[in-house]
Structure formats: structure tokens, C-alpha cells
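Reopening this one. Same input as before:
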Amino acid sequence: MKKWRCVVCNYIYDEAVGDEDGGLAPGTKFVDIPDDWVCPLCGVGKEDFEPYEE
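Same output, byte for byte:
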């Protein structure tokens, strides 16, 4: 599972964890997230995320 970083606020979306408050179950791949999903911290869209490696 991959992680994705919001380039605006540095929120990390972890596919293994998901975003339950945003309706994304653990295991939801970033490519499968609906286009209207937004960053839970700053509200930007998926287009403002980039792959993240620790």
C-alpha cells in the first residue's frame, strides 16, 4: 500500500489506513478515491497530492 502527501498542508493519506471520516475504508487505493474527495485538513482536491515515501 502506498502513501500520498498533500502538497499544501503535508497531510499523509495512507492507503492502508484510509480516511474513515471522509468515507474511505482502510485499503482504499488513492486511484479509487472519488474525484470529489478533499484533503481532510485543508480541503484541496486529489490533484494536490503526490506520492510519498518515508
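So the earlier flakiness isn't reproducible anymore. For the record, The first strand starts at residue 3 and ends at 6.
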